Amino acid sequence: xxxxxxxxxxxxxxxxxxxxxxxxxxxxxxxxxxxxxxxxxxxxxxxxxxxxxxxxxxxxxxxxxxxxxxxxxxxxxxxxxxxxxxxxxxx
Length: 91
Fold this sequence. Notes:
Blueprint: H1 2-22, H2 28-36, H3 43-56, H4 59-66, H5 73-89
């Protein structure tokens, strides 16, 4: 029985790595590039923040942010909080 959990864990880890390497959202790299233009930005911090933002927001939401679409105050507040928390995590 424990071997089944081990196989499931290995398969999940492999799927996660493959997904990160080959199926990154089309907004991931532009997000990193925009982040790098900020003061005190490093590639490591911007990649970390991009990972965090893409974990917290859907692809459509990230597109809305990147295109500066007005979606509403509650959405803007949520995005601000995600970026704030992500920035703290990625110091």
